[in-house]
Amino acid sequence: MRAAELVASAHQVAVFGLGGSSSALAQETQYRLFRYGVVVSAHSDPYVMRMTASTLKPNDVVIAISATGRTREVVEAVELAKHYRAVTIGITAPDTDLARVCDLALTVNIPEFPDTMKPTASRFAFLAIIDLISVATGYRLDSSALETLRRIKYTVLTHRKGKELEPLGD
Q1: Is residue 60 pLDDT above 70, yes or no?
Q2: CA dihedral 39, 1, 91, 102 (to 10 degrees)
Q3: Residue 139 has what pLDDT?
Q4: Which pTM value belongs to this model?
Q5: Which residue range forms the structural domain that includes residue 19?
Q6: Which residue from 3, 61, 86, 142 has the least number of CB within 10 angstroms?
Q7: 158 domain-assigned
Q8: How far is residue 60's CA from residue 117's CA, in Å, rounded to a whole number?
Q9: Cα 66 to Cα 20: distance, rounded to the nearest angstrom
Q10: Residue 104 belongs to some domain of the structure
């Protein structure tokens, strides 16, 4: 998976998402990737996204998340990151502004259920993509990811004073 190769070889990863679902998914991406030792930060403030994008370099990666693919602030932050030669990955709907501007677009076309009380279908599809990128990144990092996970498990186990290993992926 190309996205995992890019993330595994990155100096740092910045994750951008604006709005309820995309902000939460950006944070979830950070939670998934740091466990493998990836230097990653999630941003949902448009000004911080722009400031972060302006600090990026060619060996850095941006993962931008947008269900609509047309959130102007996210698209502009990606364009700015590309200006500074960071590699950009979009998790979005197909044929959108974000999909077009990203170096690698991971797109899903899932119609939303009209009942606003139900969770959005795209959120679950995007979460599956994030999980796949994360696991594939961990496998690419191999021994360094395993060592980071070992440290985390040890720390959690000794902190809770238990003997039962707890899941770290969720």
Answers
A1: yes
A2: 90
A3: 96
A4: 0.92
A5: 2-109+120-141
A6: 142
A7: no
A8: 38
A9: 10
A10: yes
The reply to whether 48 falls in a domain is yes
Own/partner pairs for 25-33, CB < 8 Å, 24+ apart? 25/65, 25/91, 25/123, 25/126, 25/127, 25/130, 26/63, 26/65, 28/127, 28/130, 29/63, 29/65, 29/130, 29/133, 29/134, 32/130, 32/131, 32/133, 32/134, 32/169, 33/7, 33/134, 33/137
Q: Name the residue with higher pLDDT: 165 or 107.
A: 107
Write down the pLDDT at residue 80.
98
Under the banding of pLDDT at 50, 70 and 90, the label for residue 68 is: very high
Provide the CATH number for the domain around residue 67. 3.40.50.10490
Q: CA 46, CA 50: separation in Å to the nearest integer?
A: 6
pLDDT at 99: 98
Say if 21 falls within a structural domain: yes
Instruction: Identify any residues that bridge with 15 across adjacent strands, giving them in sequence order.
Output: 42, 63
Q: Say whether pLDDT at 117 is over 90.
A: no
